[in-house]
Amino acid sequence: xxxxxxxxxxxxxxxxxxxxxxxxxxxxxxxxxxxxxxxxxxxxxxxxxxxxxxxxxxxxxxxxxxxxxxxxxxxxxxxxxxxxxxxxxxxxxxxxxxxxxxxxxxxxxxxxxxxxxxxxxxxxxxxxxxxxxxxxxxxxxxxxxxxxxxxxxxxxxxxxxxxxxxxxxxxxxxxxxxxxxxxxxxxxxxxxxxxxxxxxxxxxxxxxxxxxxxxxxxxxxxx
Amino acid sequence: xxxxxxxxxxxxxxxxxxxxxxxxxxxxxxxxxxxxxxxxxxxxxxxxxxxxxxxxxxxxxxxxxxxxxxxxxxxxxxxxxxxxxxxxxxxxxxxxxxxxxxxxxxxxxxxxxxxxxxxxxxxxxxxxxxxxxxxxxxxxxxxxxxxxxxxxxxxxxxxxxxxxxxxxxxxxxxxxxxxxxxxxxxxxxxxxxxxxxxxxxxxxxxxxxxxxxxxxxxxxxxx
DNA sequence: TTTGTAATGTACCAAACGGTTAATTAAAGG
DNA sequence: CCTTTAATTAACCGTTTGGTACATTACAAA
Lengths: 223, 223
Hints:
Distance between the termini of chain A: 82 Å
Shape of chain A: elongated
Helix content of chain A: over 70%
Order of helices and strands of chain A: HHHHHHHHHHH
Structural class of chain A: mainly alpha
Strand content of chain A: under 5%
Oligomer: homodimer
Radius of gyration of chain A: 23 Å
Number of helices of chain A: 11
């Protein structure tokens, strides 16, 4: 009854054959979804569009991720995981505290710049009051370790006598994050309002150095 | 034909009478729309929902603002206008540069906290790559003056010999904005990951003072 | 080979959504 | 008082959108 638009002499459309590859399909969906959510926001992203850009079908998205929210949550988790993994590569234990701090700042600054999709996801998540992050034990556990990095550097610096006492490592992390994050998250509006030249490579290098100075001057004694 | 659900003895529904109040209606729509866009994002906000929370009807929104994008743009412009007006109240000319700078930082920090809806709009705008802000001459003109404020303070400080030479006022503005903005924009995720106590009044006061210190130490000679 | 189950493709749907049509009323100008 | 226009109401519409039903295929275990 519903087969009115196909030629009658073509009895059944030949189905394309396929291989089973659950992990590949899932990874492919996540990669596409990350880009779409990052570009358009949670409500702005379209399941049809995501499916179209995938090598599989919409049915598969719902098969593996349940619904749109489920997909978004998994995208968020995967993004956090990848970014935090990138951070772990940094080894600063062998450096003197002042240098370690400066390196950490510069790395963080660059790392944020290199992961705009992640930054945008975090922005989106904040617009939603972090309600998805709140339901993800995975992510919360990952970040507990993020503070320890700067904590070690700071404690070392204090005991060596080169850092000021009485600072909260979380606040130092906050400072570094604030400037590194803002630099990416608000690039569009800030450039529009105060000049696009702030995004050139030279200006960004200068900015990075300046952020290093700011943090150093704040933490180091007689900085 | 379609009048099957209403009682037959009630011939015509009595139209509610109304007064004409174009400005009031427009203002009412803008206020509701600001909240809805701010809470749900551009795609996330629903025209029906906005209309429902208004004292008028959906038709009026389209009558005055054309379409959803038009409404969003006007909301954005109105929000910028109100926030920038609040900033103009600040008069720092009579203060010595160091004190003026510290006051500016503290004001900016507080001002951002007091306008979370505006902050969220700017976040949303950045997710859309500032494409609406780019089309608004009104907003761009408003912000040209924002830099002059810190420029005056800085120049005064340099000529008095208390500030370092060779700094870019835009970058100082950038620093202050970054920390003040991040403090509000990323409050949700940052609190979730590193402790909700950062949002208490005491911690926020301490943070504000610390931001003041950071900026001061950076700008002031021998800071 | 058979059979059960996980994985995939196709076609489809009900609801939500942005937007519109058309009639009606308030108020200002002559 | 009459006419005109701006403001407002109520009902409606076509499309988009998230989500499904159902048939089909790959693959592994028995």
